[in-house]
Design brief:
551 residues, 23 helices, single chain, five-stranded mixed β-sheet, 5 strands
């Protein structure tokens, strides 16, 4: 129940409370009139006390029952209370010939019409009318004019109050719908996404099930928008939202997260299920026709998709969004038009660490994010390098613990750049001697930073020596051949390959074929011949750079 509904129910309860006070006060007067001849005679004090005590006790009883059973079949509880009240009033009216008190039969009609609408109000108007008929039968009444007026009033109040309540509810729901829906795409908006995320996260924690978040981003949308204008871009976003909603409407909900990015919440679904649904959406978009999509790379409109799940990948909603975002950016930077389920070597390593070492690793992860933020040309560089190094290590049949050290070293190999200024990292021209010296020191600084974490000590040499050349011309210590640890020799090649095939401030991007030719040309000088052979074999098997980076 959202804040607006809570506010409405609070106000409605106030109106119902006032109505109950007035009707029970009149019922107290009726009770006094009925009991007076038999019990109280002319004792005015007792009559006045009863008139005050009866409604107070009645309200305490009614409110106590409603509060205790508020979340358990509220309508049934209210119906029982109204029925008891109606029976009591009809019973008292069989002793009272004053027609005015028949208006007490209005309370169930007023209360039920305000709370539940016209239909329920009509039911109690009918029961009240039957009560009047019973009273007239007992009194053998011959004149029904006043009673017909009372019955008419019962039905009039049921209709009037019920319609007012229903109209207010319809208007409120429409306003809520307008406030919750994105006007352009027709799916939920950013604010509604967070409302549903809070609601689903609370339910998921109670039921101990899973909650999966899918983040989707349109590939090359800015290029399309610039080429055809915002109106065509808006049409594409609307179509994308429709396609996504069609695929997930039975299992979750879709929201526009911002710009050309959408979010899908899948309550009760694990990460693998989210991965399958994300792939269905990606394929559906790729196969759909979009006007003017021929100008885009591949000639098709595509989306990149990131998937993360709670509690599989995170502990709270903030980290769920962060993990899904990381998976999305990995999909986008390794290969657009791809679905990526969140995975982080840092998380795997962190499970085996405790206390200060886990804190140190988390600090390094943060520092690496800072490095990526400082150097706009190397976002995702470390993960791509890790993937290349991982495949080479598998090709060379390294031991599992060696591959783990290699992966950690690859992820952290640039962490020493935290000591280098943003201006040097992003300098478009040639570096000065002092600037180049700072660049050459980053491997030493990086090794020093990770050395305190003893659980990953095997990665220290990988980081320290990853710029050493096979022929001894590298840095920082000019080691050569097998004096350089194998992990560092592998990382030397993986790092250089990604540098050649990525946009860098101090080097031009080269094609895959050009990068391979450069590697072969420096085989035995910069790179270990065995490492080169393993990498070339891997590239031939994967056929292209995108697959090489993602397998």
């Amino acid at each position: 129940m959202n804040r607006i509904e809570l506010l409405r129910d609070k106000k409605l309860d106030e109106y119902v409370f006032i109505s109950q006070v007035l009707f029970l006060l009149l019922a107290g007067i009726l009770l006094v009139r009925v009991w007076e001849p038999a019990v109280m005679a002319d004792n005015t004090l007792y009559k006045n006390i009863l008139i005050l005590v009866f409604p107070i006790l009645g309200l305490i009883l009614v409110r106590g029952i409603e509060k205790s059973w508020y979340n358990y079949k509220r309508l049934k509880v209210d119906n029982v209370i109204n029925a008891v009240y109606l029976v009591c009033i009809v019973f008292l009216l069989t002793y009272e010939r004053e027609s005015f008190f028949k208006f007490l039969l209005l309370m169930p009609v007023v209360v039920s019409s305000l709370q539940y609408g016209t239909k329920v109000g009509y039911y109690w108007a009918l029961f009240g009318s039957l009560g009047i008929v019973i009273i007239d039968y007992i009194h053998s009444a011959t004149q029904m004019d006043v009673d017909i007026l009372v019955i008419g009033v019962l039905w009039l109040f049921a209709w009037l109050l019920g319609k007012m309540s229903e109209t207010e509810l319809e208007v409120r729901e429409e306003l809520q719908r307008l406030a919750a829906i994105d006007g352009l795409t027709g799916v939920y908006n950013h604010r509604s996404f967070y409302d549903f995320l809070d609601e689903y996260m609370t339910k998921t924690k109670k039921t101990q099930k899973s909650l999966t978040l899918i983040m989707l981003d349109a590939d090359f949308f800015k290029y399309y928008n610039d080429a055809y204008g915002h109106q065509k871009g808006d049409e594409v976003l609307h179509t994308l939202a429709t396609l996504i909603n069609d695929e997930i409407k039975e299992v979750g909900l879709c929201a526009r997260y911002g710009g050309d990015e959408f979010a899908v919440l899948l309550p009760g679904c694990e990460g693998k299920v989210g991965l399958k649904i994300g792939e269905k959406i990606r394929k559906r978009v790729e196969e759909s026709e979009f006007e003017g999509a021929k100008i885009l790379p591949g000639g098709r409109f595509t989306v990149s998709v990131g998937v993360a799940s709670f509690p599989e990948h995170c502990e709270d909603k903030e980290h769920l969004i962060q993990k899904a975002d990381e998976a999305l950016y990995k999909a986008k930077h390794t290969k657009a038009n791809k679905v990526e389920l969140y995975y982080s070597v840092f998380d795997e390593i962190g499970h085996s660490l405790q206390g200060k070492e886990r804190d140190l690793l988390n600090s390094m992860r943060t520092l690496l994010m800072v490095v990526n933020a400082k150097d706009r040309y190397t976002y995702g560089h470390s993960e791509r390098v890790m993937q290349y190094a991982l495949q080479i290590g598998k090709k060379m049949t390294m031991w599992e613990w060696e591959i783990q050290n290699l992966m950690i070293g690859a992820l952290l190999h640039d962490i020493g750049k935290i000591e280098i200024t943003r201006e040097i990292l992003n300098k478009p021209g040639k570096l000065t001697a002092s600037e180049w010296q700072a660049i050459r020191q980053h491997s030493v600084w990086g090794a020093d930073m990770i050395r305190p974490v003893t659980s990953i000590s095997g990665a220290v040499d990988v980081v320290l020596y990853h710029h050493e050349n096979y022929d001894g011309t590298g840095y920082p210590y000019s080691l050569k051949a097998n004096d350089i640890p194998l992990g560092a020799r592998i990382l030397r090649l993986a790092d250089s390959f990604d540098a050649m095939t990525s946009t860098r401030p101090y080097k031009k991007t080269v094609s895959l074929e050009g990068a391979i030719q450069d590697i072969i040309m420096h085989k035995g000088t910069f790179y270990d011949p065995d490492v080169v052979d393993a990498f070339i074999e891997h590239l031939e098997e994967t056929k292209n750079l995108s697959e090489a980076a993602s397998l």
